[in-house]
Structure formats: C-alpha cells, structure tokens
Amino acid sequence: MPVQTVSSHKVEGRKVEGQRRKRSRLYDLRPCDLRLLLVLALILAPGLSLRAADWPVWRGPKGDGIVTDAAVPTKWSATENVVWKVEVPGAGHSSPVVSNGHIFLTSFDSSTTDRMLLCFDRKDGKLLWKQSVLSATAEKMHKNNTPASSTPASDGTHVWVTFLDGEKVAVACYSFAGKQLWLKSFGGFTSAHGFCGTPVLFGDLLIVNGDSDGDAFVAALDKKTGETKWKIDRPNRVRSFSVPLFVEVRGKAQVVLAGSKSVAAFEPTTGKQLWIADSTTDKFVATVAFTEGLIFATGTSPNSTLVALDPTGTGNVTKSHTKWSDTKTASYVPSPLAFGKHLFVLSDSGIATLLEAKTGKKLWSERLGSRLHHASPLLINGLIYCLADDGATYILKPDEEYELVTKNTLGEECHATPAVSDGQLFIRSATSLWCIGAKGTAKHP
User: What residue ranges carry the coiled-coil annotation (predicted)?
Assistant: First the structure.
C-alpha cells in the first residue's frame, strides 16, 4: 500500500488540480505533492502491478477513503443506477476489494464452518470461484463482529486474506485462479470480541495487525513466500482491530497503528518503533487519519478519545507532540476522514462532525437519520458518503455549514465499507453484493 498523499490516483497535471478546485475548495494540491508522488512511486516499484482505478485494499489505494472519480453517482436506489446485484454465499462484514477485473470478499459458512475467499467478475458479478481457506468453529465474538470481518488485499496478481483458526491468526495467499500458494499461522491470539486483522501491502511486504489480549503482535511477511520478515510484540496485550496506515513524514514512510492503549509509528521495512503516544482508550477499531501533517486517532472504549498527534517526534511523545484532544467527539468503529484542512468524524450512533484539523475547532455536528453506523465514510469527488447499517447512504457537503446533498436507500442491512472503482460503487449488504453506477459508463477488463 502506498503512503497517503492528497491525490487518490495518479495526478494528471493541471487538469486534475483544476477539477478538484472547482469541485471543492477544501483541499488543493500543494508543491510538496510532487515529492510525495515520488515516494509513492518508489513504494509501488517492488512488484506492485495495480491499475489506476483498482481498489486493492480496505478503504482504497492509500487506505484513507479518498477518491476522485467523476463518474460515481450521487443518486441510486434498489432499482435506480444498479448495474448488477448478486447473492453472496455465507456471511461477513469484510469489504470488497477490486483488483484487475476481479472482486474479492471473505465470508463464513455457518453450516460447514468454512472461512471462504470469494472471487467475482467485476463486469457482471458472476461468482468465478470460492475457496475454503480453513474450517474452524466460530470464535467467541462481539455481537457486531463476524468470523469474516477482515478485508482482503491484492496487488493485481495475488490476493491475501486473514482469518482466526482457534487461537491462531491464519494468513493465506491465493492466485487469481483460486489456488492457495501459502498459509502461515501465528498462535496465542485471545479476544472476547473475535478477530479482524485486515492485511495491508507495503512493496513486497504484507503487514498484519495481531493485537489481542494474548500474544499480541504486528508482523510483516514476504508477500510471495509468507516468510516472516519482522515481528514485534505489543506490550499492553489489548484487543484492537485498527488497520495500519502508511504516511510520509519528512521524506520517510511510517506505518501508524492505533491499539494496545496507544498510537504508535514503525518503520515499515524493519518494524522499528519510531514513536508512541499513550492513550486512555484501551481498544481501537477505527484506523488513524492523516492531514495537515498530523495523525488523528479516535476510540471510545473505555474512554472517548479524539486526538491529534505530530508524527515528527521520537520515543514517547504523549506530552510533547499531542497538539489537541477532544473527549466529546469520537467514534469507535467508523474511521475518520482527513482531507485538506478538515477532519470528519462519524460516530457509531450517526453523529457527523466536521472539524478544523489543525485546531480541533468544531465547524458543525449533526445527527444523521440512521442510528447505527459501522461502515467508514468515504470522500468521493469532494462529497462525504456515509453508509448506515440500514442500507441508507447519506451524502454530505463538507462545507463550513452542514448540508445534506441526498440520501439513497438500498433497503438491506449493511456493515461493510464500500469500494469505488471506475465510476462504480461496490456495496456489500448482509446478503448481497451491489454494483452501483450509471450503466455503460465504466470501462474495465
């Protein structure tokens, strides 16, 4: 996975910059973007063969939920702008990823206890194949979790998945033909809330978060062989499910992770800890966000926390590099959006809040119509898309004053964060996979 930058795909000169400025005044390309794109190119260089419109990992190419794709619709329903809809075998809360003409999902079959990897054709939603990665009795878990909550990762030729096998975290690699190439396990995982350790890619490394109440760890594996390149213990041993985020700080990449009663950054290639900030929040689910040179972390268990951290320090930076904090504005499961000068937080109960990123000043806070949110919001063409558990998507304008652009309803329960590719939204509901878009506008293999 590349480091986070302002643009979500390859910048096409002044044309793209002009489109962005016309669409929204909230974020503009800066002079440092060229340097960031060079860093991005270096990270992508080792064997990553992604198409520009792929959505290869959770929350998109940069893991930040931000994309510019003018063909993505703002209006749909269960019948309007539906390109196709197909049934999904089994159950799960993992998100779809789109890679080289394929859509991958993980799922759990309660009748067989199979933890499955599913592959669909992105053109028409046809199920191309399904493979049982492993079979194991469903673990003890939170009522809002499933045995298939971890989203796959892909590089255009292979796909990686993680599941819990008893007390072992299992990591597997598959070809696009559905052949398992390797499987590796890490023991000692314990969690009353179950498992969700979504893997992410950094060059030739696959990084897995194994935060738990047991033998907690973060590890980097060789994506081709499964060989452990580095593995570090997490000292506080507290279950957390945050997905690592890559950022660029002073010309160097950091992998930042919230969890284990802290927010910490590591060197992606060695696992060396760069800095750590202690937290009064024990368990994190939301992934951190990054803009204006600051890291933002939020959680609610057991204490509500929203904190802004300067990632330029070393060692314990709790006091020295905390820029601001807020105990009243926080989310547990939905990850925040950070873009330009703004930070957007969506609480699990549907309270949407826009803040100034540098200061934490609250611009507005409004309750949306749905009371439960587990999907993370996305910023698409300068508009914020918030998918609620009841299948309604609220599209907001991130301006100085609150404005609801529209509300779209599918009528099916939804927990997973959507994927975006070539002008289309891919939404996983409790039973189905939806492709939303204007028919005939998308180009794909």
Answer: none
Handedness of CA 264, 185, 333, 10 (dihedral sign): positive
pTM: 0.88
Amino acid in position 196: C
What does each C-alpha distance from 424 to 16, 218, 251, 258, 340 come to in angstroms? 19, 34, 34, 31, 24
Question: How far is Cα 167 from Cα 155, in angstroms, rounded to an integer?
Answer: 28
Q: Classify residue 382 by its DSSP letter.
A: T
What's the pLDDT tens digit per position in 284-327?
999 999 999 999 999 998 999 999 999 999 999 999 999 999 99
CB 384 within 8 A of CB 378: yes
Return the H-helix or E-strand segment holding 314: none
Prior bond to 73 cis, omega within 30? no
Count of positions (residues) in the chain: 445
From residue 137, give the alpha-carbon distance in Å to each of 193, 252, 268.
Answer: 15, 43, 34
Q: Name the nearest CA neighbour of 210 among 246, 174, 274, 165.
A: 165
**DSSP 8-state class, residue 13:** H
CA distance 378 to 337: 7
